[in-house]
Amino acid sequence: MKIAFILMLLAQEEAQEGVSSAALRFLARHQLHDGSWGSEPDACRCALPPPAAPGDLKQVPHLIELLGSEDIDARDRAQKALRDIGAPAVPLLRAAAEGTDSEVVARSRLLLGILERPVREPGDVELTGLVVLAFMNAGYSHLSMDTYDGLNYGEAVKKGLLWLLARQDEEGVFTRKDPAANAVAACAVLEAYGMTGATLFKEPAEKAIRGVKKLAPDEPTALIWTLEAFLWVRLNEMGEFPQEEAARLLELLRRQPGIRAQAGVAAAEMWVHRVRIQGDWMLRLRPEDLDPGSLHEVDVAFHQILGCRDPGLSRWRIGMKQGLARRQDRSSGRCERGSWPEGGLRGRLEGAAYNTMTGLVCRCFGCRSPFR
After folding, report:
1. Topology (CATH level 3) of domain 49-118
2. Burial, 267: exposed, middle or buried (Cβ in 10 Å; 0-12, 13-18, 19+)?
3. 89 and 81 in contact (C-beta within 8 Å)?
4. What is the pLDDT of residues 167-223, one digit of tens each?
5. Does domain 2-38+123-360 fall into CATH 3.30.70.240?
């Protein structure tokens, strides 16, 4: 029985490597000439997402009402359904964001932050940071020489990092418009320095830590990535861990709605206070019900709480990896091959980056980086 379980795990790892390999090829094909990721490259032929069905639009008022349900699972399912409907739900979400139910208001604002966040310029700081992190999580640094389909992954990482460094100001900030994007970019540079020790990234990494402290994160994505950036201070031995500031952000994260925030709290408790909290509730989650960012954060939390060799986590990850493989676009010859149908190019890029990080690597506390 034990041997059969081990063989099943090995088979899943091989399948996931194929899933991640296809995702990395998709990401490499969609890098812009300047090294960033964001808008469509000239050669992109990805199909536009289909419009929301009339039946889905009729469900929007009911789904918004469910955002305030006493049933946590119902709230999270409604939030995912509204995200899947996309832009057509925005007008009603704007109205709900001005309502009186605090849970509905918080979740509506969170959804608006996702649905109304376009690619602001050809190259996008957050997307570029996420994609660079996906490549480095898969073991490719700016020094890698591996080439697939004529695309050099090391060159892709190098160009992406240099594009980010060109946007870092004297205070270490990559963008002041979006604390989440700034924190993701900081983590990409910190990972590059932690992974290779290259002097090219030492000063930018030190400045990045100062830069994330300059902005005021106030929503789950920004809070989680800022806390992960702080973790690098400890992992890279870059000075004293900002315990007081990290504890303050953790308290802010506790007050945020949604599974992603709850999972972020579970992971950050280990980083900030060295405390393992109960995470059994996450084992009951269905991976297919989670958006890529939430799935990534749940996986991170599992590794902090349970450890990579826990049988419960191993079983949950088998189902998660099977789901990722089943939903991935594997159609031969399609521009979208290797991505997931998250809606639009930005969604596909973000989904491919998060799903690569989620499916491929271990994130146990004490490993060399927060992503391994």
Report:
1. Leucine-rich Repeat Variant (1.25.10)
2. buried
3. no
4. 999 999 999 988 999 999 999 999 999 999 999 999 999 999 999 999 989 888 899
5. no
